Amino acid sequence: MLRFALVLVPALWFLPSPQDPAVPAGVLARAQTLARTGEAHQRLQQLAGTWDVEVRTPEAGGAREERGTPVGKGILGGRYMVLNYQLVLRGRPLEAVQILGFDNLRQLYTASWRDDLSTWSVECQGTPDPAAPARLSLRGELTDAQDPSGRPFRLEFDLATAGLVHVRLHEERDGKPVLVQQQHWTARR
Length: 189
Fold this sequence. Notes:
Layout: H1 2-13, H2 25-34, H3 39-44, E1 49-59, E2 62-75, E3 80-89, E4 92-103, E5 108-115, E6 122-126, E7 135-142, E8 151-158, E9 164-173, E10 176-187
Antiparallel strand pairs: 1-2, 1-10, 2-3, 3-4, 4-5, 5-6, 6-7, 7-8, 8-9, 9-10
């Protein structure tokens, strides 16, 4: 119990209180407004539940097809969606976690990926497209053992159809985007 208190007390120290003279009342009110969930957060909640996913990776002479299961759950009052993946890629099991969110302060979708085949994260972000609100397009630097400094990539989620999700991953090669993976998710009934 003492350990919990020692962790909690420093965390609470950073939270501004309504009476804190160092934090102007207007800043506190803006922070409270920015902490609210909205339409973008509700869109991410469409990923809640258990899904069957087919992963298609283009290769010389065809494509490799594999399967897996992402399980999505809203966390922190619906501010984020955590996806727990169980996949088999190239005959090897892969466990991964991805956290998706919408940053009200910067008006960006954000994603963070971690898996049991690495010890680093892959981060990306992207602004909403008012013309296609159900399509999330995020950009970042894809780092791996082949390229520790990273190479540009784009991750797209198409959430236009209830019960179906389409994901596309593009890497930049020689200055041009190349489709390196497609995923088709179907909600379990």
